[in-house]
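Operator note (shift B, R.M.): manual run for S-adenosylmethionine-diacylglycerol 3-amino-3-carboxypropyl transferase requested after the automated queue skipped it. Running by hand, logging everything below so the morning shift can see what happened. Input copied straight from the record, untouched. If output looks odd, do not overwrite the archive copy; leave it for review.
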Amino acid sequence: MKSKYFNTLNYTLGDEDTSLELSLCPQNSKNVFSIAGSGGRILPLFAKEPVCINCVDILKEQLYITELRIETVKALTHEEFCNFWGYSVTDITPTERQEIFNRITISSEARLFLWAFFQQNKWSKIIYMGKFEKMLIQLSKINNLITGKKGQKIFFSKSLEEQKFYYLNFFPHLRWKIVLLLLGNSAVLNSILYKGDFPKKNIKGSTYKNFARIFLNIFETISIRGSFFAQMAFWGNIKFKEGYLIEADPELFQQIKQGANKTTVKYIQGNIFEVIKNSHENATFLSLSDVPSFLKGKTEETYLQEISPKIEQGSLIVVRGNLRVTKPFSDDYFILSDQYDELIKKETTQLWNIHIYKKN
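Run finished. Output pasted below as returned.
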């Protein structure tokens, strides 16, 4: 599991629409385990008021940003939270963001790292500070040079039907193909984001064809303003509030706040599979992100079996994969992906092949 990729703060926004995991997580689940990432993939789960959430990541810096996210939702109003993280049309000043940061109670280790990190980034909008987000910002600049205003104009469609009509008749398809060829160049993604540790593709079709499919799904099945990933790819920021992560939704924010003030939170640095195997209490919901895609050798096939003794009967496990999809032995599980197909199709990034397992 050790990797060059996991040696810095990679995400401050993320690359997943966690509406899926929120829908699947049971109310008052006893012992939730989730990859931390930016914290944006964990925060919505508090709305289900679990007894305990175990935030796990092999990178301590991602745990720091997760800790900050959780503590800000507990301490701030919805407006303050959105302003602090960067969900706003007009930004607050660096001094104002720094003052809010000083009000938040977090561990000394997290404060020390995040202070230096924010200082390095001039206390700008936090959701755009991660390596992944900066990569998307750079790609958006290239996209804008190639597809220009004709590419961006699709975001002003007033309905999905109008969006589909614009895509079919006015979208700059030939110029967009050049962007896809760049985005679909695994060597580019490898060098920019994964530093030589990009998971080896094992799904059908070229990388280019898979990214073409991803964006076609967005253009034809999802209101493009609702996809923060699409907004980042074309604008370099979340220009339209419809694309804000669900943590910024006013109603859900209040539910998250209520849950965060009740739930026991644990921050654990390590391999999530080893963490689960060594847990004193069985897991009742698992959100594994795409971590299984980075497994190598037999572990890629056996990880579900290895953690099976520590999974409560009836518990769900959500696994994501982009260009690499694992096929673990699942004798102890029901595979429910088809059952939740409609829910999976609504995932607004469309980046992921998603598998859902239920412990039998």
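Quick read of the result: The first strand starts at residue 32 and ends at 35. The radius of gyration is 20 Å.
Leaving this for review. - R.M.
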